[in-house]
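ok so I'm stuck.
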Amino acid sequence: MKTVNVYEAKTHLSQLLDLAASGEEVIIARAGRPMAKLIPYQVKHQPRKPGCWKGKVKISKDFDELPEDLSRAFRGEAG
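replied:
not stuck anymore, here's the structure
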């Protein structure tokens, strides 16, 4: 783990990002007090869970019915 002050972090951000990307944690401190931690970004790949919206979404009976004026507009016909 590496600790740097704010000025050094601003000055050497690219190098600190490289350190974090390689797995090293970087602590950014102000006046000797730790303020933030720079760590590598990790994408969490969670498998999709089928049915997670079951019972939460209701589709009305007239969902597939398009009002005539809107239907004409989609076809490019004047209203």
